[in-house]
Write a structure and sequence with these properties.
Elements lengths: L7 H9 L4 H8 L3 H9 L6 H11 L3 H8 L15 H16 L2 H12 L5 H17 L5 H18 L6 H24 L3 H18 L2 H17 L3 H14 L5 H17 L2 H16 L15 H14 L5 H12 L10 H17 L3 H13 L8 H13 L5 H12 L5
């Protein structure tokens, strides 16, 4: 691995603007350690950070690119010739220095091997995260968030403990994954600022652990956040960034491609949308069912059907009806007790309702939409999709839109008991 080259120009510009590393990190919305790694040449600012970084440093994008270019590696000086005799004497001299106090070497070895964490603790944390990721489909987000924060508190408490290098990396990874899941749950609760903080933490831990998979998931999650707030072009760019980090053939590679397709669909670009759908179908076709397909970060073949239904719905392709019905047929409608995939069943019913509205099938559309609303399985980040169906029904002058609006308002503002 090449030695990172410090970005002295970037550090100099920061100091000229009167920023400490911590001040600049706050202005850009990242951790201080992230700014430190930028200046050390270990990582580059990600696309979403660059506009804030340029603004904070009062430079244009061209000047920012110059500041973050890696500096030329220093010229290597020729190694002076040392005779074999000289090498042997130097070796004996170094060995003699060690032999004079062997207890120091033994103490160093003991410290390196010392650990207050242990394999059983880390295995328990990793298993606990997998359980939380599987509960995501079923558990109310507010309750799941309590468990996520409990795990993160445990991880934070272990960070200052003595541990081996590989244990430290495992701790970074479980903290990164759990922070990522916490961000996803917070997006579901429409707590976007808190979600961004959790995502920044997940990204920082993933960078320190040099884990491209978590980094890619962070970008994909931000893409979904942008999609729900109607920032469709940004959603596409973030999805592409996720794909650039995603390991080949991984779950996140497929998920990022699917998210990009949904962004293109919202932008009305049919050609790019169909291209993304085809890409997802090809990648998903080679997958086997994972051991725990309900795991939020494991892509299973059936998930491609759900994403295709939503994506086709958004470009008003009536073929979406068949995909949505296939999802419901396999996992049950959201009112069934219980559907195998509650979130997926709700989304399929909303996709079906919207597509049936476009097809002029008012009664079926209302039935599907009401089933989603009355299931009790919608989370706040899904509410806008019900409003989308209501708007489409209103445009088509469906009489049932009043009933759907009433149910929608009751869902958004439940009565306190």
């Amino acid at each position: 691995m090449p030695t990172p080259q410090k970005r002295s120009a970037l550090a100099a510009r920061r100091k000229a603007m009167g920023y400490s590393q911590e001040d600049l990190a706050e202005a850009v919305g990242v951790d201080r350690s992230t700014v430190a790694r930028w200046e050390q040449g270990k990582t580059e600012p990600y696309p979403e950070n660059r506009s804030e970084l340029a603004r904070a440093l009062n430079v244009d994008y061209e000047e920012l690119d110059r500041l973050i270019q890696a500096e030329a590696a220093p010229t290597l000086r020729p190694v002076p010739h040392v005779s074999p005799v000289g090498k042997r004497e130097a070796a004996f001299s170094a060995a003699g220095a060690l032999w004079r106090d062997p207890e120091e070497a033994e103490e160093l070895a003991r410290r390196v091997a010392a650990s207050d964490v242990g394999d059983s603790t880390l295995t328990s944390l990793e298993s606990g995260f997998d359980d939380l990721a599987c509960q995501y489909q079923f558990e109310p987000p507010s309750l799941l968030l309590l468990e996520i924060n409990r795990v993160l508190d445990h991880v934070a408490g272990l960070m200052d403990s003595r541990k081996k290098l590989h244990e430290h990396r495992r701790l970074l990874l479980v903290g990164g994954w759990t922070s990522l899941l916490g961000a996803t749950v917070l997006i579901d609760l429409e707590r976007d600022r808190a979600a961004s903080t959790y995502l920044s933490t997940a990204l920082s831990l993933a960078e320190q652990a040099e884990n491209p998979e978590i980094i890619a998931w962070c970008y994909e999650t931000r893409a979904w956040q942008a999609l729900t707030s109607s920032q469709f072009r940004i959603a596409v760019e973030l999805s592409r960034a996720a794909r650039s980090f995603a390991p080949r053939g991984s779950s996140i590679a497929i998920q990022a491609a699917a998210q990009e397709g949904r962004g293109w669909a919202r932008l009305g670009s049919r050609e790019e949308t169909y291209r993304a759908i085809d890409r997802v179908q090809k990648m998903a076709s080679s997958l086997n069912d994972p051991a725990r397909p309900e795991h939020h970060y494991r892509y299973d073949p059936a998930k491609a059907v759900s994403y295709t239904a939503t994506t086709l719905t958004w470009i008003r392709d009536l073929a979406a009806e068949d995909f949505a019905r296939e999802v419901i047929r396999k996992i049950g409608a959201p009112m069934s007790l219980p559907p195998r995939w509650p979130r997926r069943a709700v989304m399929a019913s909303i996709d079906l309702a919207l597509t049936l509205t476009y097809a002029g099938k008012s009664d079926e559309a209302l039935h599907a939409a009401m089933g989603a609303v009355e299931s009790g399985k919608l989370v706040p980040s899904h509410f806008w999709r019900v409003a989308e169906v209501a708007d489409a029904m209103r445009a088509e002058k469906f009489s049932g839109v009043k009933e759907l609006n009433a149910a929608y308002e009751a869902m958004r503002h439940p009565r306190q008991t």
